[in-house]
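Weekly structure sync - notes
Attendees: PM, LS, DV (DV joined late)
Agenda: review two folding runs queued last week.

Item 1: First target. Sequence and structure tokens pasted below for the record.
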Amino acid sequence: MSDAQSRPDPYGEGGRELDEQESSRRVITLLSDFGTDDNSVAVMKGVIFGVNPEVQIVDISHAIDPYNIEVGADVLAMAYHYFPKGTIHVAVVDPGVGGDRRGILVATENYLFVGPDNGIFSHIYEDPAYLWVRDLRAVDFFLEKISSTFHGRDVFAPVAGYLSIGEDPEDFGPVIDDPVKLEISDCQVRPGGGIDGEVVYVDRFGNLITNIDTGVFWDGESLAGEDEGTLTPTIEIAGVTIRGLSEFYREAEKGRCGAHFNSWSRLEIFLPEGRAADELGAGRGTPVKVRFQLNRS
């Protein structure tokens, strides 16, 4: 890593302003664990279009592991700031639907978020641009009949639709100060530059994405106490040691796991044309250690 390496901002500054686009149509994104085998996602889109036929709807993902709020929160966190400022993000991974969990509207300076109060917006609360959370209580913005099993259709979709046509967020409910927050796993930089982290997400290719970003890596490298060119990072995971970083997937030897920083500035463990998760028997929560070794001439 170079001393000139910029420390990543995991939240970014947001995409362009909506009025800087060729079209000023509002954007709504959808994220869920619904899959695409039935009509759930299409029905949510139909409800939104019923409120605002001109809105643009983008699917972030509907392949979140069923009921896995933590993964939903991670995927949303990696995606939301790439959208134009003013985008409304709807996230529905909702095992508590029909119970006493609240529906909420969350705001940052750049975006609005709609979904259940179960921790799926935990990363959003850490965004420096975070503003407030509102309890969705204004039933006039819901569908007339609300089921106990599909609030994505009956509550969250219509709320997003009304927000997209300019309804004032203040009209949806009161501000609350106790939203549910997940315990977000942070990596640790140890004296001497060692880094202790873990896998937080496994993508569809079996790549293991960790909570170690380039800024943390740079901190560890600096604490190792030697010039950059004299150090080689070693990554330890599931009993395997990976020496050095690759620039791209095929740079690593076929059949052997490699490590690099991915497009999200996260340390990622991969297996060229294979699945690192299966090869290593690793998944979310698997410990990952980084150490810096002095090169021997």
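Item 2: Second target, run right after the first with the same settings.
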Amino acid sequence: MPFKNLLLGLALGLVSTALAAHPVYPALDQSTDAALQARLEAKVQQLDLLGAAKDRKLSVALVDITDLAHPRFAALNPDHMAYAASLPKIAILLGAFARIQAGEMSLDQPTRDSLTRMIRVSSNRDASAMLERVGIRYLADLLQSPSYRLYAPERNGGLWVGKPYGKDGDNLRDPLHNLSHGATVLQVARFYYLLETGRLLSADLTREMKSILGDPALHHKFVGGLQAAHPDARLFRKSGTWRNWHADSALVERDGRRYIAVALADDAQGESWLRRLIVGLDEAVFEGGPTKVAMLK
């Protein structure tokens, strides 16, 4: 067995061992909640974005995970894969932490600082440097591995990073759509659900990863829209922008509730769409009434 495959196998073995210690959580795509789906569609219609969704110019996923064991999932175009700009940097973050968990990288201060800049200010330089350290083929194997399935051909793809965030470097575009940096809203939502349920990494590294996703420095899209309406909201977030493509994703904690929101837009007005959309998604969650399960800390 090639040495790099042996290392990946060891990393995934550690993940599988950690997964076995956790309760069995349901698959998000098997947790559709009819009431939440109806509220999601109503909010999108109120924002005059239902046509964009029908034309696949807008994809949305919303998951109420206040009760982690019983997620409530709603979506529009959940399996539509689109160019997602910098949002898939969360995949590089996962790859780096998988290397760290396997003992192949150290979470020293320079590494932590680089990962933080990659996520919070969306540094392309740090993303490209980190992708080189992780390995583009290692990352592709990790995303497709049975432990994660964050890129799944039977679900039309998912999270993918197939080139550095610059002109140079290896090129390994996704096999279904030839995208360099792609995502589906379902697989991005799954990333956050796996993170929050402790199924991506060990407990210590899960806390480290979530900390890096917190305190976003770019106050646009989801952050700008939600914090203007609810300054108390906490977002653990990664967004992306390139030309007409606008993407955002967040784990939101507010007023005893916790939910995941993801949106991919292909329109020049996409930033405005997402800034307004997150307020509607927040309303869709809270209009569902109080949960019977206290938010886990």
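Discussion on item 2: The beta strands are 58-64, 72-76, 82-83, 151-152, 157-158, 160-161, 181-183, 234-242, 245-254, 257-266.
Action: LS to circulate a short write-up before next sync.
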